[in-house]
What we know:
Layout: H1 6-16, H2 23-35, H3 38-54, H4 61-76
Helix pairs in contact: 1-2
Amino acid sequence: MPDFAPPVERLIDELKHLPGIGQKTAQRLAFYLLRVAPEDALALADAIRDAKEKIRACGSDTQQENNLRGRRSAQHHGH
């Protein structure tokens, strides 16, 4: 792997933890995030932080998806 600045290395390493993301894709995503407007990259970071703080996942992946959909549906319908 080429030598990148430590913050870029960390970003690539963190992106590789996502399902289906290998080294090359992680690099592409990292450089994309570095190219976009700061507010766009920070909006993604804020959305991740917000979801992690407000949503608690439990059970299987299917149960998690159903729980998250149900919660979103209830929020949209004023419940």
